[in-house]
Amino acid sequence: MNGRLAARVGDGLALLAVAAFALAAVSYLLYQGYVDHGEAVMSAMAWRMLHGAKVYLPFDDPDQITNLYGPLTFLWHSWPLALFGGGVSASKAAATVAALLLPPAIWLIVRKDPAITGWVMALTTGLLIIHLAFPVVIRPDSLLTLMVATATLLAARDTEGMGRTILIGVAIGAGIGIKIHGALYFAPLAIYHFWGHWRRIPVMGVASVAVALAPFALPMFPLKEYLAWFGPMAGKENDWPYLLAMAELLALYATPLLVWALGGRRALAATTLRERLYAGTYAAAMVLVLYPATKTGGGGHYLMPFLPVAADQLRRAFAAGGSTARQRAGLMVAVLVALVTDWQCERRFFKKLEWEKSRAVVAEIEKIMDDYPGETVQMGIGRTPTDTGDQLSIHYYTWRNLPVYRGNPFTIDAAIVMELHKLGMPFPAEAVHRFERCDTRIWLIPKDGEPFRLWGYYYQEAFPEEVRTAFQGHYVKAESRTFFDVWKCRDR
């Protein structure tokens, strides 16, 4: 395949990949449901934050709802809620914006080499599709990747000018404010940018620390409570065998290293020590991120913020190696592997979107709240008799943010309770007393579920027996609808 034809094929594959990714992102924005169990708590906390509630609470607080993403994650996902009000699509709008900006951002990194631009775009966008649904759901991943892309554009082009150093520091600080280990993704860029300009490190450090700490000046983000959670969380065990499941992803993210190697002696001769350290730090950072990625709740999507650096590494490897046939063949094979995998990933993603049912679930929740005016309403969870039913119960629980948008309380989240139970934290007595006092008058439990009985993903009962005893003693099932049972306080 001659160079011009190869470039056109790459451009065509890139357009197909970008179109497929954009279709997934926009479709998910319009879909009136959620595919990730953590989206509801994220959006509910962002909504509460807009109304002055604290995001980070002590371990023993009766509100068992603390989620440990950084403050900038909550601020980012809150602006559409502030503009458009509480709703399913509004809660996902910020995630969609960040996701749709990723392909253009990566294109800006590689656009100056048209012979490989399409192939690099096809690979990186293909990896975004493999990661579905993580790039498009209410999570920090796309926003963090966007910050890394910004830093890549700043750091990898030129080292002249203190302004670039400050802006890179801002991007790094934002990354830390999105996820506490976010600085790790910027390490290759920092090594490259500061080579020969080490005196600029304090300037970058001040900018990074200032941006990372700035949100904690707001009362919604108490720094002490935020930091207190990381000690116990760091003690979660690693599932190292999971590395086998990540083998294909790791191989695809290692494509830049393969292309460097295929460049042979020519690439080595044309590469400065600075370039070698840049590539080596990229490899080392990927190895280091496997530690949080293999903890329970982690996964292959922890590699996603490396995509902009991978794109820049590919651009440099081809430039140094002279874009040899071996290098082009190596990249093409990686692209084909990614795109073949994409077909199944996108198919599975769209299969999860139950359009009619999701609209019916939202309508039922809204109708129940309308039918009980003046009553506080909250959604709980309950185990149904079969394993499949257990999963369905968790599925319907993903709409637990909707009552919060109507001003109702949000005091307990099953996923957070599972985490605290795993860490050995006792369930707060005050949280049990709230059931005894009927502080929430109406509880929605996914239909036919036994309230607050759930076998969690740590293979433990999520809620203690005293929760179920208090609930059964003070609430009665008032009615059953299509998707939810309505449990009402026993008035005495």
Can you offer a commentary on this structure?
By secondary structure, the protein is mainly α. It has two domains: 3-30 and 68-351, no CATH class; 355-489, no CATH class. It contains 24 helices and six strands. A four-stranded mixed beta sheet has the order 1-3-6-5. The chain is elongated and about 80 Å long. The N and C termini lie far apart (82 Å).
* Main sheet characteristics: 4 strands, mixed
Q: What is the distance, rounded to the nearest whole angstrom, between the alpha carbons of the first and last residues?
A: 82 Å
β-sheet strand percentage: under 5%
Order of secondary-structure elements? HHHHHHHHHHHHHHHHHHHEEHHHHEEHEE
Q: Using the CA coordinates, give the radius of gyration.
A: 24 Å
Low-confidence stretches: none
Condensed summary:
The protein is mainly alpha-helical. The chain has helices at 3-30, 39-50, 71-84, 88-110, 114-130, 141-155, 162-178, 187-194, 201-213, 223-228, 230-234, 242-245, 247-253, 255-262, 264-269, 273-293, 307-321, 325-351, 355-371, 387-397, 402-405, 414-422, 429-437, 465-474; strands at residues 377-379, 382-383, 442-446, 450-451, 475-480, 484-489. Helices cover 62% and strands 5% of the residues.
